[in-house]
């Protein structure tokens, strides 16, 4: 296991090496190595089996052992500042080349996340090395000393003794007790190179070895031979020393001297042979097995005995307890005195010996023996003894408050626990406790323990990572970095971030945030390359996360560092990513833009080929939903036509194309194909392809965009790429204001046939940087994409050869017109690219019509001659008018066709026809026109469709409301009350005439009155004059548009209506007495006026909508339940409130009424007016003016309005009255009239009629009905009138209100009851209509039952049912005073 191996390498016996200058020269001159470096690779023994028995009766075996060799002069811990400088140099060396660092995100995708970055392991090793050789950790103190002498020494024994006596001891061995326990071993180093001739008395190395053994001991001496190899031939052993040689620290220390010999050209160990290496290995192994291990074993035994003597036994335990209490008391006194500002005693009761670090207790007494015992036991791999000793020592340190020494013990205890197989939680607890005690406390603000605290967390992170506890490793490293300086904190942050990648699932968000913080720390300590590497690892991870500030910071730092390093391409890339920064202020946005443009300018100047098209984020382009508009079989005359939903046009196309149901007036001779032959992916050469792209400026500064165009490719069949000039692309310049979003339409024209591919758009930002974005279409939602989506989603088109195109213009139509105006204009037809024929037009609105009798202007001679020949053969007049004009089609549309022989040629000029426009609704009026034409040249397009929309703003002019009520003095006529409100702002309107267009109806004008204001309540309550005061008809001037049909009834007005005022007009209408022909499709003839044709088109539209609703109901379509039937009167009044055609939804709800009140249906009216200042005529149409109320049977009580009588001569005045009834229902009815007290009280109380407006006579009710009180009419046929005569006796003068009578009419399920006053002028609704169900229906409900006796309340169960129009109520049970009491049931 890696952590176990590292632990054994870190805590292993330290051997101090002392070499003579001659021995150093032998090694360095030939091999470039010091004696210490020469020994290091061979200090690891892994094939051992040495039995050891330290404490107890049981022994164990050491199977592997590592020795650490250090020079005597380098065994000390460097100063903290020197160590920090060395560690910074380590990071600086790593920052010089970061190219070998792995790409972490790529490794994450492959599942190969590294455990650490390359420089982290080396930094951790150097960091651990800088903390070695502290006085409180004896496992780094030397346990043996190797005295290396040259074999050329004349007296090796004496030289060895002198060397030992004069050597410089490390600080840890300056104590005499430590020197006494040090093991000495002597090595005689022999140089096997050929030597010059020597004297015969000089001994050989073997002889000197024997002499040394005789003087120093047999086991304490060994011979090593080197330099027997050929230096010129590489031995292949140089790699053994590369990993063992450490870089020296300034001034020396940490196990390395201040300087190292340079590596020779041949490499390290060039003069060493295999036999030299084997001899060296055997010598060191013999030293370890025969000398060092027994020495350490004996040392553990001795220390254990010493500890037992000082701590075991009752007496020693009491002394230890008292000493602990006295130490704790002294520590408390010192702490209290320090906090209170008192003088501290010069000589405390017990003070630990000062150390070099100033934070650890000195090694003296029993605690020193315990620590040496634990460390030495760990060195000989007796981990149980080490762990038990460390636990005892921890208790002592904790009781004395020596927290740093206690933390050091906890750290080593964690390693010992791991080696003996303790639980993971126990091991990590020791490391965490060590970190906590090493960290600065509130009472100890010094930072000397921070380095050791970080070491504890590094050990914990390494241990936790080994066992897969990445969260624990991450938490430990994060806790350690919080109290470290910038460089080390950055390294810890990087390693903590890597732990997050190993988690499942990886925590990418925190990983990226840690790396950003690490980059900040690297930049703070001037490690730019490492900071840039940290940013690059995560910069692209923030894309699309909407963390603007982090992303902006990363790209800013990376861009500036790249530019400083000369990487302009990288600087442009990072400055480019900073441009979309909407959260920054406008000043910073402008700075970022200039920064990017400057870098782009420099890159273009140095290497223009590297500055290609960039993926510029400015402006923001919607590349996922580009709208493509093009013409093929279907063409569009303007942009408004494209804005109309495609489903609407397809409905019209189904009426116009051959094969669609467009009525019986089709001219099908020119049909050559059907709807299935349309190709949506086809465009025509020479015609524009428009791409609508959404551009937006997310910044607070304006953007200047030039050379904006479409990227496209045209591939011809015989070539792989489009030839030069095959595409003509339009370039546009746009300036987007701050925060502006705009749709830009770009056009291109393919000039030759082939395959056209739209790739994207390109533009230039501020005339410097060229941007390019390719389209990425958004996938259509649902299982199937609609036809409209498929058109917009395809960016590849087939370009066919050019074809003729019909061009249509509507001349004379103003952009703004008054509501109801009759506007004259012209329809101009022309052709581009050839001749077209078979022209047909379909209009979806009844507001536009063509004059079929007019002659066209500008028809060329060929078409005129062909038309004359055709008409001559047909024996008709020689005219080139419209063969079919304004023909109603299915779907509430109107069609006009020119015939198959009519042709429009682009070379002969345009043709014009007169047309009429009549807007009926205020607001935005859209004229939808669909044109069908057939090109006479080319076979790719047999026909084409042209969609056209013309927009007109319609201003309000008049508001007309008609109210039709029965005449009070005649059952066969009606009174019409017409209220006209002027909506003109300043101009007065001249009301010319009112026309009744329903055949058989007669219109008589009455007097009119004008009210001063629309808000005057008197205007709506104005009473009509009597028919005796009828006004005289006044004839006025007429326009050619207002020539009326002889079947119409006309009332001339010639009344001016000022602006913002109201006029009330009264008329009498006489309905037809006999049925008239059906007027749904009348023939107006060729000379009918425009107003009549528009009125007819409105009727046809209403009839078509009503017929469609009727057919849908007949077909069994589901209808909403419990929906009341619409009142025709109320619906018509609401529809005519604006004085124009009702909307489609309301008109569709009006179904044909099988029981109409009049033979010819409800009357249709037209009000004609004139604006003299604009020379404009107009009219408003009122369709189906139903009377107010719908009494199936009308009644009239006639009699004298005023009677003069002499009551002195005759006390009673007899007045003869006549009651007339007329049946307007479809079937026969029965009636009953009741006069006097027998009439229903409810009827008399419910209906009341106001008397005359002014009267000097008092109101009086003293009258008596004479004769029969009841009159029966057994049968009143449909349309018949019945008269009943009665008398009333009056006994006093005054105003008598005769309302105490009632008339009941019954017809099956219909029951009508009510009264009318005598000669009632304008009564309210006089009938009460009650609809009852004929079938038997029972229902149960709970109601309250009131008892009149004591007004108490009881509950009962009530049954109510309706049987043949009779309501029966029964009470099952009543819980009250008595069940037999009378109860009143109130509903």
From TrEMBL:
Species per Swiss-Prot/TrEMBL record: Apatococcus lobatus
Q: Which PROSITE patterns match?
A: SHSP
Task: Give positions of region: Disordered.
Answer: 246-266, 1007-1041, 1097-1157
Low complexity bias (residue ranges): 1007-1031, 1142-1154
Cross-referenced PANTHER family: TRAFFICKING PROTEIN PARTICLE COMPLEX SUBUNIT 8, TRANSPORT PROTEIN TRAPP
Which CDD domains is this protein grouped with? Answer: ACD_sHsps-like
**Per the database record, which ranges form the SHSP domain?**
1267-1387
Query: Entry's InterPro entries?
Result: A-crystallin/Hsp20_dom, HSP20-like_chaperone, Ig_TPPC8_1st, TRAPP_III_complex_Trs85
Listed name of the protein = SHSP domain-containing protein
Q: Name one Pfam family in it.
A: HSP20
State the taxonomy lineage: Eukaryota, Viridiplantae, Chlorophyta, core chlorophytes, Trebouxiophyceae
Its Gene Ontology cellular component terms are: TRAPPIII protein complex
- Similarity comment: Belongs to the small heat shock protein (HSP20) family.
């Amino acid at each position: 296991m890696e952590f176990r191996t590292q632990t054994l390498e870190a805590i292993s016996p330290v051997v101090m090496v002392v070499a003579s200058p001659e021995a150093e020269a032998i090694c360095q001159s030939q091999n470039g190595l010091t004696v210490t470096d020469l020994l290091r690779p061979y200090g690891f023994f892994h094939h051992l089996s040495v039995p050891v028995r330290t404490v107890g009766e049981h022994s164990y075996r050491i199977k592997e052992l590592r020795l650490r060799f250090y020079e005597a002069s380098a065994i000390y811990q460097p100063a903290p500042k020197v160590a920090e400088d060395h560690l910074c140099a380590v990071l600086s060396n790593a920052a010089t080349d970061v190219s070998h660092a792995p790409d972490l995100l790529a490794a994450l995708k492959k599942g190969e996340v590294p455990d650490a970055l390359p420089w982290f392991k080396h930094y951790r090793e150097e960091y651990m090395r800088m903390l070695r050789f502290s006085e409180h950790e004896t496992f780094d103190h030397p346990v043996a000393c190797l005295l290396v002498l040259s074999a050329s020494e004349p007296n090796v024994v004496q030289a060895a003794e002198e060397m030992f006596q004069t050597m410089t001891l490390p600080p840890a061995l300056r104590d005499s007790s430590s020197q006494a326990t040090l093991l000495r071993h002597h090595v005689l180093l022999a140089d096997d190179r050929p030597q010059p001739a020597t004297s015969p008395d000089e001994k050989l190395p073997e002889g000197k070895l024997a002499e040394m053994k005789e003087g120093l001991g047999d086991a304490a001496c060994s011979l090593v031979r080197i330099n027997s190899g050929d230096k010129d031939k590489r031995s292949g052993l140089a790699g053994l020393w590369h990993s063992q040689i450490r870089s020296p620290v300034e001034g020396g220390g940490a196990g390395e001297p201040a300087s190292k010999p340079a590596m020779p050209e041949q490499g390290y160990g060039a003069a060493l042979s295999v036999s030299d290496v084997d001899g060296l290995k055997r010598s060191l192994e013999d030293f370890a097995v025969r000398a060092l291990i027994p020495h350490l074993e004996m040392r553990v035994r001795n220390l254990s005995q010493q500890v037992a003597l000082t701590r075991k036994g009752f007496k020693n335990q009491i002394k230890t307890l008292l000493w602990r209490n006295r130490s704790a008391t002294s520590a408390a006194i010192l702490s209290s005195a320090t906090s209170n500002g008192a003088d501290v005693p010069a000589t405390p009761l017990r003070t630990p010996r000062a150390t070099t670090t100033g934070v650890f207790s000195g090694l003296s007494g029993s605690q020193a023996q315990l620590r040496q015992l634990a460390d030495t036991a760990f060195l000989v791999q007796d981990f149980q003894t080490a762990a038990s000793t460390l636990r005892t020592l921890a208790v002592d340190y904790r009781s004395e408050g020596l927290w740093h020494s206690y933390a050091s013990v906890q750290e080593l205890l964690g390693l010992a626990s791991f080696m003996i197989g303790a639980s993971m939680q126990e091991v990590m607890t020791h490391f965490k406790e060590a970190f906590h005690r090493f960290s600065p406390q509130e009472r100890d603000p010094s930072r000397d323990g921070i380095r050791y605290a970080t070491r504890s967390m590094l050990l914990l992170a390494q241990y936790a990572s080994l066992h897969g506890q990445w969260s624990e490793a991450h938490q430990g490293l994060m806790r350690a970095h919080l109290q470290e300086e910038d460089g080390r904190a950055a390294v810890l942050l990087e390693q903590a971030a890597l732990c997050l990648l190993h988690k499942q699932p990886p925590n990418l968000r925190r990983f990226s945030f840690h790396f950003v913080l690490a980059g900040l720390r690297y930049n703070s300590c001037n490690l730019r390359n490492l900071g840039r590497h940290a940013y690059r690892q995560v910069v692209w991870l923030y894309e699309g996360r909407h963390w603007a500030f982090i992303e902006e910071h990363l790209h800013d730092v990376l861009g500036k560092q790249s530019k400083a390093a000369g990487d302009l391409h990288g600087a442009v890339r990072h400055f480019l990513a900073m441009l979309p920064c909407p959260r920054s202020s406008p000043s910073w946005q402008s700075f970022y833009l200039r920064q990017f443009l400057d870098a782009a300018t420099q890159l273009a100047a140095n290497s223009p080929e590297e500055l290609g098209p960039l993926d510029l984020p400015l402006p923001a382009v919607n590349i996922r939903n580009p709208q493509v508009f093009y013409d093929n079989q279907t063409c569009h005359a303007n942009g408004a036509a494209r804005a109309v939903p495609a489903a609407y046009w397809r409905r019209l196309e189904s009426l116009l194309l051959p094969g669609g149901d467009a009525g019986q007036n089709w001219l099908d001779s020119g049909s050559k194909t059907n709807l299935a032959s349309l190709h949506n992916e086809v465009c025509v050469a020479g015609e524009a392809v428009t791409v609508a792209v959404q551009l937006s400026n997310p910044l607070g500064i304006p953007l200047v965009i030039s050379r904006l165009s479409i990227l496209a490719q045209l591939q011809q069949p015989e070539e792989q790429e489009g030839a030069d000039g095959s595409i003509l692309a339009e370039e546009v310049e746009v300036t987007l204001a701050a925060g502006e979003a705009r749709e830009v339409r770009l056009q291109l024209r393919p000039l030759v046939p082939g395959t056209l591919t739209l790739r994207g758009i390109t533009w230039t930002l501020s005339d410097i940087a060229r941007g390019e974005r390719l389209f990425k279409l958004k996938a259509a939602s649902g299982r199937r994409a609609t036809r409209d989506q498929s058109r917009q989603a395809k960016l590849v088109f087939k370009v066919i050869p050019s074809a003729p195109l019909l061009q249509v213009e509507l001349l004379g139509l103003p952009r703004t017109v008054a509501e109801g105006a009759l506007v004259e204009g012209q329809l101009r037809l022309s052709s581009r690219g050839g001749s077209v024929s078979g022209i047909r037009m379909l209009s979806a609105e009844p507001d536009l019509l063509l004059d079929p009798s007019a002659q066209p202007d500008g028809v060329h001679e060929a078409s005129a001659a062909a038309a004359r020949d055709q008409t001559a053969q047909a024996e008709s007049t020689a005219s080139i008018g419209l063969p079919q004009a304004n023909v109603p089609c299915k779907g509430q549309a109107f069609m006009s066709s020119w015939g198959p022989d009519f042709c429009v040629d682009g070379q002969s000029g345009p043709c014009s026809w007169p047309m009429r426009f009549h807007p009926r609704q205020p607001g935005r009026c859209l004229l939808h026109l669909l044109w069908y034409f057939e090109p006479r040249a080319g076979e790719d397009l047999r026909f084409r469709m042209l969609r056209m929309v013309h927009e007109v703003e319609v201003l309000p002019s008049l508001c007309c409301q008609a109210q039709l009520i029965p005449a009070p003095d005649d059952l066969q006529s009606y009174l019409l009350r017409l209220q006209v409100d002027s909506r003109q702002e300043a101009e007065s309107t001249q009301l010319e005439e009112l026309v009744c267009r329903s055949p058989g109806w007669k219109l008589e004008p009455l007097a009119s009155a004008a009210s001063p204001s629309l808000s005057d309540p008197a205007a709506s309550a104005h009473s009509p004059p009597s028919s005796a005061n009828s006004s005289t008809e006044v004839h006025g001037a007429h326009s050619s548009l207002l020539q009326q049909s002889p079947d119409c009834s006309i009332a001339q007005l010639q009344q001016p209506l000022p602006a913002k005022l109201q006029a009330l007009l009264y008329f009498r209408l006489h309905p037809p007495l006999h049925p008239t022909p059906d007027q749904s499709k009348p023939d107006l003839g060729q000379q009918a006026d425009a107003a009549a044709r528009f009125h007819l088109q409105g009727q046809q539209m209403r009839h078509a909508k009503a017929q469609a609703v009727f057919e849908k109901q007949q077909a069994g379509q589901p209808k909403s339940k419990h929906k009341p039937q619409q009142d025709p009167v109320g619906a018509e009044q609401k529809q005519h409130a604006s004085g124009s055609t009702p909307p489609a939804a309301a008109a569709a709800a009006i179904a044909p009424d099988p029981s109409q009140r009049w033979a010819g249906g409800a009357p249709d009216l037209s009000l004609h007016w004139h604006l003299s200042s604009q020379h404009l005529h107009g009219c408003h149409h009122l369709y189906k003016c139903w009377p107010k109320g719908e009494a199936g049977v009308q009644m009239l009580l006639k009699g004298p309005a005023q009677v003069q009588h002499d009551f002195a001569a005759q006390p009673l005045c007899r007045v003869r009255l006549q009651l007339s009834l007329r049946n307007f229902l479809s079937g026969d009815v029965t009636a009953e009239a009741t006069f006097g007290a027998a009439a229903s009280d409810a009827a008399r109380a419910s209906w009341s009629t106001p008397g005359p407006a002014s009267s000097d006579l008092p109101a009086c009710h003293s009258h008596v009905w004479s004769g029969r009180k009841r009159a029966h009419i057994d049968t009143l046929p449909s349309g018949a009138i019945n008269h009943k005569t009665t008398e009333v006796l009056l006994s006093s003068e005054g105003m008598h209100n005769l309302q105490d009578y009632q008339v009941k009419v019954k017809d099956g399920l219909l029951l009508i009851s009510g009264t009318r006053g005598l000669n009632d002028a304008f009564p309210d609704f006089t009938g009460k209509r009650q609809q009852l169900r004929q079938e038997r229906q029972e229902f149960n409900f709970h109601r309250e039952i009131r008892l009149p006796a004591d007004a108490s309340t009881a509950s009962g169960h009530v049954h109510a049912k309706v049987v043949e129009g009779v309501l029966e109520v029964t009470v099952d049970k009543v819980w009250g005073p008595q069940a037999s009491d009378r109860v009143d049931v109130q509903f």
